[in-house]
Specification:
With about 550 residues, the protein is an alpha+beta fold. About 30% of the residues lie in helices and about 20% in strands.
């Protein structure tokens, strides 16, 4: 952190937005519309961060599209649902309320004032719809972007916008709703049209539409320009030192800086220090905690540091980058003839629970035995029935089993192959099978609870048996600077740090570790990006 003014400023603007994901581009839009001169600085060579490779789903309770699918919502319902899921651990109840109060306006404002267009994802309930929780909805809160014709609308930027998401299980140019639809001739023709016209979907569409809105406003975005340090003079954040072409550039911000540069999931040391166990990152690799370091240096209060937006991860030896395996999304978790065990060979959680929550079970501490019995990796064990019906990484039904997959004719032999205690694994599978044959899971309630709907069980009764390693993974971390309701960063020494805002995965999530429904992470970022940009623009310009 620099604590004196540089000898010269290379640029002077009102607002510096750090990052170009959903949180950042929303903040930039609002700062501009509030009258601020805005500069967006992005470290990567592509626009959009994790948001651009994501499903692009945004969870906005009370949004105006809910009526189109005949679902009503209310502040009370949304808050009752969220409060039940946070279990009272939100870092500030007022910030949680602000999320609910602002969410509808974010979508209506952006649809009215930018090219962004969204629709509710059909048949997509809140993630805890199968649970006995208040305020849950059967759909409508999760919206997804409509396809966007990047080829027609912003052809000069097409190579600097992500083309397709990294989610292997989903199509590259389908909408989420279409991923689960019948592959009709009409849909195939539509997908061919999208390919031909460079029409993008999901997170790539979300970012492209928000970015087009910034282009229309004349907001400048510089790629390959990482922000390295804040410039903080007399307790006020007045600018940043960034790097461009290997040179330092000093940019002043008359009104403020918004840190919207993602989480720290790619920073192994930070993950170890804050979360406490190994978690595999699933986002693009630039999110190494730059925003967190800058906020800490400026004296930010932190919150939610042990948490992250979870997603179980797997490794496929056929997918690597620069000689290193790249963590992949899980496949097949909760398939009826499968279960997941820890390093002792015991089950440890309901395999069908929401993807944010399952990874957290890997971090459980056993105070009786003084150990972490579930520390990764775990093993997903499944039978031939699952092998024949479910794709798992590059293991595809009907095709030869890849060499890297352990296969054995008995559970005992499988245990020996993967180094687990054979007696324990055999007993685990026997108990599971006995209960599953009666359609029950008294240990972990898999037949009663699961993501959106109860899970299912079936005995593992068709050998041979297979095993795949499964790890806790992160879509992004969600601990960081504690915000007030305006998206300003709170300080330890002062109520807020003058001139410093944060949004998205750089900041502490409004809903603690909870992931209430599809799109909750991007929504958290867009809502507080929205508030930060608007508040920042309304501040008097400081004499830099
Ligand atoms: C495959 C996949 C699918 C997902 N699907 C969904 C979904 O449908 N809905 C949902 O809600 N969530 C989803 N998630 C999670 C979601 O994408 C992220 O939580 C969210 O996009 C984070 O947004 P953000 O704006 O905080 O950060 P990001 O989108 O990660 O943007 C941060 C940006 O900051 C840049 N940056 C980092 N350091 C610096 C620096 N020093 N200077 C300048 N720039 C910097 C990064 O390069 C990056 O571009 C998904 C995640 C993955 C991986």
């Amino acid at each position: 952190m620099l604590t004196t003014r540089p000898e010269r400023w290379d640029r002077v603007v009102d607002a510096i937005i750090v990052g170009s994901g959903g949180a950042a581009l929303t903040a930039a839009t609002m700062a501009h519309d509030g009258g601020a001169e805005v500069l967006v600085l992005e470290k990567a060579s592509l626009i959009g961060g994790t948001t651009a490779v994501s499903g692009g789903v945004v969870w906005l309770p009370g949004n105006h599209h809910m009526a189109e699918v005949g679902i009503s919502d209310s502040r009370e319902d949304a808050l009752a649902y969220l409060r039940r899921l946070t279990c009272g651990h939100e870092h500030d109840p007022a910030v949680l309320e602000t999320f609910v109060d602002t969410a509808p306006e974010v979508l209506s404002y952006l649809e009215a004032n930018t090219p962004l267009r969204m629709q509710p994802v059909a048949n997509f309930p809140d993630y805890f719809f199968a649970y006995d929780v208040p305020g849950k909805k059967s759909g409508g809160r999760s919206c997804e972007p409509l396809p966007y014709a990047v080829g027609d609308e912003i052809p000069e930027w097409r190579d600097r916008l992500v083309t397709r998401g990294t989610l292997m299980s989903l199509g590259s140019n389908t909408m989420l709703a279409e991923d689960f639809a019948e592959p009709t001739e009409e849909l195939k023709a539509e997908l061919a049209r999208r390919e031909a016209q460079d029409i993008r979907t999901k997170g790539a569409a979300l970012i492209a539409m928000l970015f087009k809105g910034l282009l229309e406003r004349g907001v400048e975005l510089l790629l390959e320009t990482p922000v390295r340090e804040l410039i903080v003079v007399d307790g006020s954040v007045i600018g940043v030192r960034a790097e461009a072409n290997g040179q330092s550039i000093f940019v002043a911000a008359r009104k403020g800086v918004v840190l919207a540069c993602g989480g720290y999931e790619w920073n192994k040391e930070m993950v170890r220090a804050f979360i406490g166990y190994e978690v595999q990152p699933l986002s693009p690799p630039n999110n190494v905690g730059d925003g967190l370091v800058m906020a800490m240096e400026a004296g930010a209060q932190l919150a939610n540091m042990t948490s992250y937006f979870g997603q179980p991860a797997m490794f496929d030896p056929e997918i690597s980058r620069d000689g290193e395996l790249v963590p992949q999304f899980e496949w097949g978790r909760g398939a009826p003839g499968s279960l997941i065990v820890n390093r002792t060979g015991a089950r440890f959680a309901n395999e069908a629970m929401p993807y944010n929550d399952f990874p957290k079970a890997f971090g459980a501490y056993d105070a009786t035995q003084n150990e972490f019995p579930n520390e990764g990796p775990g093993w997903m064990i499944f039978d031939q029935g699952v092998r024949d019906s479910t794709r798992i990484l590059s293991m595809i039904p009907g095709r030869p089993t890849p060499d890297w997959v352990p296969v054995a004719n008995s559970i005992r032999d499988l245990a020996a192959l993967i180094g687990l205690d054979a007696d324990t694994l055999e007993a685990t599978v026997a108990t599971f099978d006995e209960n599953a044959s009666q359609g029950r899971d008294p240990l972990f309630h898999r037949t009663e609870l699961g993501l959106m709907a109860p899970g299912a069980v079936r005995p593992l009764n068709q050998g041979p048996f297979y095993a795949v390693v499964i790890w806790p993974g992160a879509l992004g971390t969600n601990g960081g600077p504690r915000l007030d309701t305006n998206g300003q960063v709170r300080g330890y020494r002062t109520p807020v740090i003058d001139g410093l805002y944060a949004a998205g995965n750089t900041a502490a999530s409004a809903y603690a570790w909870a992931y209430p429904g599809g799109g909750a992470t991007i929504a958290n970022g867009m809502v507080f990006g929205f508030r930060a940009g608007r508040h920042l623009a309304a501040q008097p310009a400081r004499d830099i």
